[in-house]
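Whether sequence alone determines local backbone shape is best considered at the level of individual chains. When preparing material for the folding task, we compiled for one chain both its residues and its backbone structure tokens. No coordinates are needed to read the tokens, only the vocabulary itself. For completeness, the protein is quoted in full, as a sequence line and a line of structure tokens:
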Amino acid sequence: MKALVTGASSGIGKHIAYYLASQNIDLILVARSKKEMEHIKKSVKVNVKILTLDLLKEENVYKLYEETKNDNIDILINNAGFGLFGTFAETDLNRELEMIDLNIKAYHILTKLFLCDFIKKDTGYILNVCSSAGFMAGPRLSTYYATKNYITKLTMAINEELRQAGSNVSISALCPGPVNTNFNKVAHGKFSIKEADPTYVAKYAIDKMFKRKMIIVPTLRMKLTLFLTRFAPYRFQLLIAYHIQGKKLGK
């Protein structure tokens, strides 16, 4: 088998790449930073192809597909993305638009193009790395939450379309809570609750992906949190989220 992993140079993407390699799955790694991908290539025993691309640029997303569409890919891992802490009136508009381009547009394009190929073959797996934020609104992290809502709900809708069609293609949404990655540094904030181990999250995600689970939530704490939010009024959810993000900002 062969997997394409975006955002493969760090965080969950890097750990997913290592776990896939441990399962003897060949890799196509995509990120802006080549150094860490080279390190992964040297550390694993499978075939690894490296593509250095900035998926913030729409033309590079299409370029990625064109350069890999004939590589007989079995698994697409959409992972590249970032967040930005701060109130909506104060955060940088250009940075938010870049977030939308990466967190939504790149996912959407790659999911569409590879899904169509997988449907023709009637086989394949897509894992969209989303977030527990995909089920909530997030004051002080509003655009990030909104992007994850988009991808989570899109993934769920496609999953049902495939199920109704009796397709052998599977699509899943990975929805973890805080994970110990460099997300905080990029988003200019700090998680106020315990972060999950990215190695565990990666293994859990891939194992559940192969079992065709639609929504993948790695930790019991987050499973319980998401369950309880179903019964909480929106205003209460927003209040809790507002204060949680405030703690991340040191407020």
